[in-house]
Specification:
The complex is a heterodimer of chains A (115) and B (111). Chain A has 115 residues and is mostly beta strands. Chain A contains no helices and eleven strands. With 111 residues, chain B is mainly beta. The chains are: A mainly beta (115), B mainly beta (111). At the A-B interface, strand 5, strand 9 and strand 10 of A face strand 5 and strand 9 of B.
Amino acid sequence: GAVVSQHPSWVICKSGTSVKIECRSLDFQATTMFWYRQFPKQSLMLMATSNEGSKATYEQGVEKDKFLINHASLTLSTLTVTSAHPEDSSFYICSAGSGAYNEQFFGPGTRLTVL
Amino acid sequence: RKEVEQDPGPFNVPEGATVAFNCTYSNSASQSFFWYRQDCRKEPKLLMSVYSSGNEDGRFTAQLNRASQYISLLIRDSKLSDSATYLCVVSGNTGGFKTIFGAGTRLFVKA
C-alpha cells in the first residue's frame, strides 16, 4: 500500500503553546488528506478534510481557528493545534486518499500530551 | 441510527476458531467499503476492500450485500496475531469522498 508519514510521532507541550503536525504522502500524490482524532478506547473521529490548494472542510464541532490545516502541496498537509489545552491531548492521525476505490492510507499518528 | 454500526465486542475466541464480524450502513448511496485493522495505540491499516462479488485473501473473506446494506468479515483459523480492533469503513463519492468509520469490534484470540 501507499506510505504516509507523520511527524512528530509524539509531543509533550505546555498549555497555551501551539503544536504543528506534518503529514506526508511519500510515494504518491494525495489531492485529499484527512485529519482524525482518537481518544483512548474510542473510535476515530474525522476532524477535517484537506484538499490541496483550497481551504479545509471541517466537521461539525471542530473549531477551524483552533485546528489550522494547510495543504500546500500534493504530498504535504499540516495540522496546527493552536493554544493547546489539556483536553486537546489525543492521538492525531492523518490519512491520504489514493486509488479508484477511495481507500485511505494512514500515517502512524501523533500522540499529543498537553500539560 | 449511526451511519455505520458494528457488532459490539469484544470477541474472545480460541486459536483456530472461525469468527465473523458484521457491519451495517445507513447511506444507500455509499460506494466503497473496507475493513481496516487497528492495533492498540497504532494507526488503522487497510485489511481489505469489499466488493459486491465478495473477496477472499487467505484466511479472510469479506462480503457485501447492497440490498441489505450489510458488510461482513470472516476470519478462519484465527491466530494470536489476529487480536486487534476491526473497523468497518464506508465511503461515498459526494464532493470528494466522505468516509465513515465504524466504532470497531475488538477481537481477542487466546491460546
